[in-house]
Amino acid sequence: MAQHTAGTANPLKVPEADPVRWCPVRHCHMKRQRPWFGFRSADGAVTIGRTSARITHGPPGNASEKQVLRKRLQRSIRKTMGLKERREREKQARKHQILDAARHLLFKKGIQSTSINQIARKAELGVGTIYFYYQSKEEIFYALQEEGLDILFRQIEAIGRKSIGPDGKLRETGMAYLDFSRRHKDYFDIINYFLATPTVMLGDELKQRIDHKGSRILKLLDGFTRTGVADGTFRSVDPKKYAVMFWGALHGLTQFKKLENTVLEGENHAHIFEYAVDQLIDGLKPKKER
Fold first, then answer.
1. Torsions phi, psi of 177, nearest 5?
2. What is residue 242's predicted lDDT score, i.e. its pLDDT?
3. Quick one: which of 57, 88, 160, 259 is 20 to 30 A from 51 by CA?
4. What's the pLDDT score for residue 41?
């Protein structure tokens, strides 16, 4: 057994192929001593740590003792992994608690009239807890937009992986946007709040981060359009400009849902939305195919 002295930074070398236990200074012969354990993997690496077991004698000398220690080590690893997962769940729950409070205050008071203290009171958390997760209220509102844009991006990205034509991908993207505005109304309203605000309130750095999230979606739309132009499905257009126009049209059409009981009385908003998306895509096709 390789010797080890307290304080050395060099890893311990374990000759056995199975989990083994030993005292960092000498073999454990003292009662109630918590033993160290080591485990050599296939590539020769050794994992070092302490077990919660107590021993009253030296290192294991037979297979049965090694099997007992192996089971203890496995239980210790599972317990550690379970603790990490629980802490991660608690962390995510706190963040959702903060974001829910911030979302409520954003629509009630606006970003300028909302403070960290108000968010903390609404979330029933301490101010220090808020600052543990977010550096400022601007970062909180950025996180709300980020989550919404990430959900929308994943939906459109999944459409891009389908084995359908570029016109079909654009059409499904349009319907996915309408579905996003319904199923994730809170996130859609957050995105709409900031798109409808004429001034930049989040600072240049945060705005650039948000714009980057949005640009990923535009790149997907750009790619669908570019593919259609290349294979002859669409006539020659500027893919990037069309992507911006298409997203802008989708967003504007979605807003007309609010007019179902007035301007659109007697009309079905979803049918109008679908009709408009078809017209946008048909306008891309060569004249002979229209």
1. -65, -40
2. 96
3. 88
4. 47
Residue type, 229: V
Q: Using alpha carbons, list the distances in angstroms from residue 253 to 124, 180, 207, 272, 280.
A: 38, 13, 25, 9, 12
Phi, psi of 20 (to 5 degrees): -135, 165
Residues pairing with 47 in the sheet: 39
Residues 6+ apart with CB under 8 A from 166: 224, 225, 227, 228, 231, 233, 234
* 204, burial (CB in 10 Å: exposed 0-12, middle 13-18, buried 19+): exposed
Kindly report, residue by residue over 96-122, the tens digit of the pLDDT. 899 889 888 887 887 778 899 999 999
| Exposure of 187 in the CB half-sphere (CA atoms within 13 A) | 20
Distances (CA, A) of 190 to 144, 215, 217: 7, 17, 17
pLDDT at 207: 77
Burial-class residue 103 by CB neighbours within 10 Å (0-12, 13-18, 19+): buried
The domains of the chain, with CATH numbers, are 20-61 (no CATH), 138-289 (1.10.357.10)
Q: Three-state SS for 49?
A: strand
Kindly state the tokens that stand for 87. Answer: 């802490």
Residue 39 pLDDT: 46
- What is the rounded CA–CA span in Å between residue 283 and residue 234? 9
Q: What is the pLDDT of residue 178?
A: 95
3-state SS assignment for residue 20: strand
